[in-house]
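ingest -> fold -> write
write: protein_1
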Amino acid sequence: MQLWTLFITSSIPVLESFLITALGSFLALDRINLFGQDSRDHLNIIVFYVLTPALTGANLAETITLDSMIELWFMPVNILLTFIVGSIFGWILIKLTRPPPQLRGLIVGCCAAGNMGNLLLIIIPAVCEESGSPFGDADTCDTNGLAYWRYGFFSSSNILDLEISLSICVIGGIYLWTYVYNIIRISSDTSIQDSTQTTEISATSDHISCTEPLLSSEDNVDQYALPCTVYEGDAKMTRLGKIKEWMARMNEKLNLKAVFSPPTIGAIVGFAVGLISPIRNLLIGDDAPLAVIDDSTSLLGDAAIPLLTMIIGGNLVKGLRMSEIRKSILIGIIIVKYIAVPLTGILVVKAAVKFGLVSNDPLYLFVLLLQFAVPPAMNIATITQLFGQGQGECSVIMLWTYIFASLSLTVWCAFFLWLVA
């Protein structure tokens, strides 16, 4: 395969993202004023609560089966490893650059979560169709030529759809929306609390004497007496009351409402529909009695990616004007995503092959390797918009990482093809 052809192939999904981003930026300009801050906030809420759950749920319900999970079990493990590797390098980057507290979660999220949806969906089939591909002729690559394809358990004619859909749903519905979502939430909460405490301290500092203790001795006595009072109250409670109180405390600490976000719930529903045969037969397939529900859900989910990309473009206008993100942070994220993580991914996949965890099929290995080399996931923009922290910085990060994505994906695709051939 010629390098120029590979460059064009890698650039197509990035160019599509740029065009939609440019549309969002154009509509957000002051003289156009069709996509202002309020509009983006409301649209982002719809994407979060409706479109993204529909995307993850529909894709999982249509593609996941018990046989496919057994056959491609290493795929979600590999994606989890991309998150772990990216998070480690993101944490190192934070230690080196010392960014503001509200950006720490964003930096870790951008280093950890990759765009494994529309980019792979365009790149991998295009690579299969090219002459000189190490995966054989196009028909063999697209049907049943590889070992993990032979069982015929998947109703679609293209196993790549299964791989990409599984990647989208696992990333969007489980890892990204349980891990990155909560990382950014905690970072945002911490920055807000620090800001509030700083304001309160500055407001009251003039009224506190430097030599006056904050607590009197009587206050200290009462403070130490409080636990005894609590224990006496607990002793009088029934066992059921204690269990209820413990569950309430655990729910408050874990913040299950935040952990089980709508996209995560959509992924859980998708798993249930895909794995439970009676429900699957009722909803999935052309002859299913309730196939219209699945079709409607897929139609909603298809709108998530373009609308999310437009939101990034709208935030980019404000981000370029007001963002104070340092160049060292941008350069660090680019180095992590396009050098450190892919190099580590090669070691991970090579180790998996050596220990017999995955078959030595070139296309499967190529997909696993490519998952370590993609740019940051665009859903991170939705998360920052929800918490009102780092929207402009996120848009600037997305702009520069996707500018470098064309060159980076081309280089890594060429190297990965050589590696698995």
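write: protein_2
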Amino acid sequence: MQGKQGSAAATAAEALRQRILDGTYSPGQRLPSATAIGNEFGIDRGTAARVLAQLRQTGFIITKPGSGSFVRTFEPIRRSFPSRLTAWREGQAIQDADTGKRARMVEVAVGEVLASEAVAAELAIDTDAPVLRRSRRFAVDERLVQLADSFYLLDLVRSTPIVYTDTGPGGVYARLDEIGHAPVRFTERLRARMPMPTETEALELPGGTPVIAITRMAYDSEDRCVEVTEMVLDASAYELEYHAAI
């Protein structure tokens, strides 16, 4: 019986996945109940519930308590580089350029840490020298989408609002501008990879979801690196757009 149930459950899971992929169940649509799935595929209700749990863990559906399971829907975030990095000049946060008026949540933690070898190399300081770190976790439309850690020279930012969780209109770059170190040039390095366990947990990623790791350096008019930011993006939530003049 267990073998038959397992085979039927695999058939049910694959059939439901295919219906989502081909649009039979459209984004936002409510899926049949576990009872209905069980009746259709000849499995008991508990096994059908595990099929739905598998679809949820792999990112195909979400479950709303008391309402049922629904096909996951999310409008990809278009992250446009480098134009997004000028939003601070209008007193906006950089993330405003990505998400506009979409509901956004950010958790911020600020404190001193010892610079890693990679961060120290970019900031031209010794490894393990103290730096200021601003850590953020972003959610858009109630979905966790990005982790970001930014690092700054302590002597440069110690007496600025950059040491606070709320840096004021225009964010960090506006505050750097006020002390004569506005960023005028940026470099980004990207790498697609599978997430570390801590990243999977922090972003609540379904199994098998890759991430995009981005390291950005910001340079002032004297070509001094004034910020290093290490980001981890849920690859399924973003569309990356790059512009360059030639």
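write: annotation protein_2
The longest helix spans residues 2-21.
The longest strand covers residues 104-114.
pipeline exit 0
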